[in-house]
């Protein structure tokens, strides 16, 4: 199990509601005290086992759903984090959704439409690999993309002023508050990768034939907008981290410690729900005993 110092430290990754965030002042590499890479493998295995038990209770309790959101710069390890979380879950109770460039059909609806369709049902866990936050990230760095939405009040890039983006943050908060009030627990993880580490991972993908498929020249083009993306993330973290849908900024330069932190945070949040297997009434218990007796007396 993770030690108490580690458990306490990861709570500092949580962004308090309304707090200004300066990503350049936050760590991108974290080596948890008292835990090394080898020890983390055992702790991660234990976390996976615990996560499986919690999922079973979640399904049986059938009052909550869980939505886990991952956002990050390219090569930050979103896919690996999703795979790790998935490794401890029953696939029948999990929905993993990855959102890429919206289709023409999706653009003919509001930008929540395609995300709303993928929300987990009660008793389920939903994982969003990228999410509705792309609409205040990619679109903010490349505002011309918003023109494809054919919004009545947006005729040109100049129409997307500060008020426009503030309205989007409020829309996102309303969307998340609505699903939260109806039983969806929301956990949002921003994998905070350093620019030099991203460069190293890009070069590794180019040098390693088995990883060539992971690299795209489009990734390199987006890297040119690094500072703009950092600014966009800082603003969304400040304006959309809430008590009901908190953001956690996870140092992502070390993949193993990032996955360890994510696992521990998810477990801590699950435990706070105090979910349990449904308790049956005395009458139901008697029916079960009768059923057992009938089975035992079968010939």
Write up this protein:
The chain has 299 residues and is of the alpha/beta class. The protein has a single domain (4-296), classed as Rossmann fold (3-Layer(aba) Sandwich), CATH 3.40.50. The protein contains twelve helices and five strands. The chain has helices at residues 4-10, 37-61, 78-87, 104-107, 113-116, 138-141, 162-181, 195-207, 217-223, 226-240, 255-273, 282-296, and strands at 65-72, 94-98, 125-129, 184-192, 247-251. A five-stranded parallel beta sheet has the order 2-3-1-4-5, sandwiched between helices. Helix 2 (37-61) packs parallel to helix 11 and helix 3 crosses helix 11 (255-273). The radius of gyration is 22 Å and the shape is globular. The termini are far apart. The mean pLDDT is 92.
Counting DSSP E segments of at least 2 residues, the number of strands comes to 5
How many domains would you count in the coordinates? 1
CATH names the topology as Rossmann fold
Please tell me the CATH architecture by its name.
Answer: 3-Layer(aba) Sandwich
Helical stretch count?
12
Biggest sheet, strands in spatial order?
2-3-1-4-5
Write out the CATH superfamily name: P-loop containing nucleotide triphosphate hydrolases
Order of helices and strands: HHEHEHHEHHEHHHEHH
């Amino acid at each position: 199990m993770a030690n108490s110092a580690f458990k306490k430290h990861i709570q500092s990754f949580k962004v308090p509601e309304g707090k200004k965030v300066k990503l350049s002042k936050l760590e991108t590499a974290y080596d948890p005290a008292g835990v090394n890479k080898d020890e983390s493998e055992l702790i991660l295995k234990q976390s996976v086992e615990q996560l499986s038990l919690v999922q079973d209770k979640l399904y049986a309790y059938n009052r909550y759903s869980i939505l886990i959101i991952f956002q990050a710069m390219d090569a930050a390890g979103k896919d690996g984090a999703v795979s790790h979380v998935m490794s401890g879950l029953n696939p029948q109770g999990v929905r993993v959704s990855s959102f890429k460039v919206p289709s023409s059909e999706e653009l003919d609806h509001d930008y929540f439409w395609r995300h709303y369709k993928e929300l987990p049902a009660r008793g389920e866990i939903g994982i969003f690999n990228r999410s509705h936050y792309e609409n205040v990230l990619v679109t903010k760095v490349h505002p011309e993309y918003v023109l494809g939405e054919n919004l009545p009040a947006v005729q040109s890039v100049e129409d997307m002023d500060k008020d426009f983006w503030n309205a989007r943050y409020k829309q996102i908060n309303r969307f998340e508050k609505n699903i939260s009030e109806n039983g969806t627990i929301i956990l949002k993880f921003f994998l905070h990768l350093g620019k030099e580490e991203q460069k190293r991972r890009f070069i590794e993908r180019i040098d390693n034939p088995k990883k060539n498929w992971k690299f795209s020249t489009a990734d390199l083009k987006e890297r040119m907008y690094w500072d703009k993306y950092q600014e966009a993330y800082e603003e969304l973290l400040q304006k959309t981290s809430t008590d009901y849908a908190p953001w956690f900024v996870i140092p992502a330069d070390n993949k193993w410690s990032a996955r360890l932190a994510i696992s521990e945070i998810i477990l801590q949040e699950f435990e706070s729900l105090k979910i349990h297997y449904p308790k049956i009434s005395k009458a139901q218990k008697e029916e079960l005993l009768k059923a057992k007796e009938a089975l035992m007396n079968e010939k």
